[in-house]
Every structure is written in structure tokens, then in C-alpha cells.
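Entry for KG4 complex. Fields follow.
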Amino acid sequence: EVAARAHIENILPVIKKSLKKIDYKKIDLISVTQGPGLITSLLVGLETAKTLSYAWKKPLMGVNHLNGHLAVNFIEHEIKNVFPAISLIVSGGHTELGLMKKSGSYKKIGQTRDDAAGECFDKIAKLLKIGYPGGPAVAHYATQSSIINHQSSINFPRPMIKTNDFDFSFSGLKTAVLYFVKKNKNKLEKKKFVQNICAESQQAIIDVLIHKTIKASKKYKAKSVFLSGGVAANQELREQLKLHICKLPNNVKFFVPSRNLCTDNAVMIAAAAALKFKNLTPIQKKKLKNNWQKIKVDPNLSL
Ligand code: KG4
Ligand code: ZN
């Protein structure tokens, strides 16, 4: 109850501000995250959306959070002749590689077996005491590091980089950083030391993400690669993955949302719903009316 109240207190000012700007008559559809995620956040979001759907008499569509991350690419870029495509979704809760053979189809081909990449960034930042969310903090310190061309004297593992699958694992990397920090406790005060740990751990995460994405692109003869999720805001990951994709034969295309649309936002949920809505028949659109009562949250929803 406490958590739910905290969510409501967070969401109310946003709704108040938005309601002043929105002309509800211009809205075709309301969309809301159904899952995956924390149950209290999902419930508060869904109940709020249901209230608006009922009050404004607008249809309501439930959206998968991960689909939102992926779909925001489709409103920002012209997407033509891109299938088969490989999707890498990297966030605080997920690290997932997917194969899209055609529009609307998605098959998971790999995922993290423990921590997500974003979670790894967050945990490393926490043990270095450099702030939360950890990704932007680690990335910021990494830019100030003197490590040149990613050649570091610190060497962290690249977990599962050589395995013959598309899965990931990041908990070992976090533990390696933990032991290294413990061993060098006296140096933690030195900015340079922290900057170098950030640069090397960021690079370890990037190396694994890129290696598996490129391997999947080759195996499935992808015409394009989609990167999305909060970690996709990482400048080094964006630039380095782009460079690797450029080296692939047959001009493989690379799509990544603007940085502000990578981390969780409402636009991505609207984008996913709008894309689906556009392809519905008039009968299917009619069926959506008054469906708000049927939509349920699912904390473990998968793509
Ligand atoms: O997608 P997102 O906003 O929320 C979830 O669905 O989890 O992703 C949040 C994650 C956090 O772990 C955060 O540290 C990471 O994305 N993140 C970054 C950057 N910005 C956010 N990681 C690396 N570099 C960044 N610039
Ligand atoms: Zn997210």
C-alpha cells in the first residue's frame, strides 16, 4: 500500500500537468503498460488509464513494455525493407536478443541468465558510490578516463562471450568489479581509479552485447539491427555497435531511438499501441470500445 501510494503521488502531478494540455476529443486510443514490471507500478498505471478510458469513452490497449522500447524505433525512422531483423533490448530488467522475420513477428533467441546489463551498470555504480541510476554515472566517469582505445591495465571478464548461444550473464562481471574494488580499497578516493574502473566495466558490457548481436545478425542474415531500452542511451554502445554493423556485408541497417526515448517514457507505449491500432480492421477497432474492464496487468509478460 505504501508503494502504491508513492506511485500515485508521483503520477498525480504528471497527470494534472498533462490534462491541462490534452484535448481529449483529439485522442483515438489510450495505451498503458500491462507488463513486465513491478506489480504496484503496473496496477497504478492501469487503474489510471482505465479511469481515463471510462471518463473519456476512449478504447484502451494494453502494451508490453519491451514492445514499447522496440516500437519507438518505428516512429522515429522510416522502416522499409528491414526484415529479417535482429533486436537487442537492454534495460534495467532485461537483456534480450530477438529475431523478427517479418513485421509483427518476434522470437526471443537469447536473454540474460542472471542480471540485466542495466542492473550491472547500477550495481557497479553503487559499489563505486557514484550515484543512481548507475548507467549514466558510469558512462560519465568513463568519458573522463585516461584509458586510450579501450586498452586498459584493468581487465574484467567478458562473461559468456564465447558460448555457442545468444544468452548473456552479467553477475560475474559485477562480482569481479566488487573483488577488484575490495582489493584496492585505498584507491577508491582517487578519481582516476574510479574513472578507469568505469571505462573498463562499461567496455566489458559493451563487448559482450556487441559480440552476440553481431553473431546473431550473421547467423540470421539480418538486413537490420534494432537497439533499444534504457542502456541504448549509452553513447559508447551506440557508436561501437554502429561501427561493427557498418563492417558487415550487404549494408545492414542500424536503428536506435533518440537517447531521451531509450529510457522509459510514455511515447514508446503510445508508439507500440499506435502501430497495432493502425493495422486493425474497423470491426477490430470497434471491439476495442469498452474493453477497459478486460485488461489485466502481468508482471512477467514476455514479448
Ligand atoms: O528501460 P529503462 O529506462 O528501465 C527499465 O525498463 O529497466 O532502463 C533503465 C536502465 C538502468 O539500469 C540505467 O542505469 C540504464 O538503463 N541506463 C544506462 C544509461 N542510461 C540509462 N546505462 C548505460 N548508459 C547510459 N547512458
Ligand atoms: Zn524499460
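NOTE: The longest strand covers residues 30-35.
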